[in-house]
Design goal:
The strands form two sheets. A nine-stranded mixed β-sheet has the order 3-1-2-4-5-6-7-10-11. Strands 8-9 form a two-stranded antiparallel sheet. The protein is built from five helices and eleven strands. By secondary structure, it is of the alpha/beta class.
Length: 227
Amino acid sequence: MNQQPVEKKVLSDGLRLDVHSIFYTIQGEGPLVGRPAVFVRLAGCNLNCQMCDTEYTQGRKPMTRWRLITAIGTLLPKPKGLVVITGGEPFRQNIVPLCNTLNRLGHTVQIETNGTLPVFSSLDDAVIIVCSPKTPKIHRSVQARCRDYKYVIEAGNVDEKDGLPITVLGLGTHAVARPGPEDVVYITPLDTGDEKENKRHTQQAIKSCMAHGYTLNVQLHKVIGVP
């Protein structure tokens, strides 16, 4: 079970961020799946999903915007590439200076959020937001900007009306926020580490996709064995 603490939103100028890790990999999920990307994992989250398998707390370090941008540049094989800002919860910190600078340098910037915190109004429109809802409501500013939604499917925990989860990752909240009619939905089977259980979750994910027209998310990075 996830024992990492809940952390509140930090108010700052965004010129220095609390970073967990930076690494180069293949984007395994969502609308840009398959693309090489530098992941910037920011430390801390405002939620505590009990079945979350991501480490976002230990080993954090403060980094300036330009130090981050330099580190990203050393990892990418070309001057311009995909940069994914993830966590934890990215919107817990002021990521506008980092994202807008990366965007103006020609990078494609994608943010992965749980949707509970507001999108900064000064964030460049070109920045892509992908939401993985964990709670009954998502912030209206996320709804206004986001067109791609990811859900983790667990067998036996699915609303048959729309094929989406009732609760997510052991968080314990019901009626997890739903996407709009024009949004694209990506379905990921829950990975428990147990082959038999994972097969059940995958079969449920396939069923939801086939019945409702969602896109199956098989976590490509895990399939090919990269971080």
